[in-house]
Amino acid sequence: MEYKYEMRGLLVEIGVSEEFRSNLLATIWARGERQTTKEAKDFLQEKLDEGIIDDDQMKSLESVVDGYTIRR
Q1: 72 lies in a domain?
Q2: Does 27 reside within a domain?
Q3: Contacts of residue 25, Cβ cutoff 8 Å, sequence gap at least 6
Q4: pLDDT (tens digit, 0 to 9) for every residue of the chain, 72 residues total?
């Protein structure tokens, strides 16, 4: 749950368009949890390539992904 609050706030703070926030929030979480953090970061790269997010937004979002990564 903490992830959702942090990520939702960050998406607003860094100026991600409202129409993309829900998709980004859910997909980053799903890929990171069900697949790997690399998959989550690849998704962010796709969104950067599509022009949905910019470089600074991507760096901010990647830092959240890294912060929730559990190393085993």
Answers
A1: no
A2: yes
A3: 4, 7, 8, 11
A4: 688 899 999 999 999 999 999 999 999 999 988 999 999 999 999 999 999 999 999 999 999 999 887 765
Supply the pLDDT for residue 1: 67
DSSP alpha helix (H) spans, the chain: 2-13, 18-34, 37-49, 55-67
End-to-end CA distance of the chain: 21
Residue range(s) defining the domain that contains residue 49: 2-67
Dist CA 69 CA 72 (whole Å): 10
* Number of domains comprising the chain: 1
Check the CA dihedral 44-48-52-57 and report its sign. Answer: positive
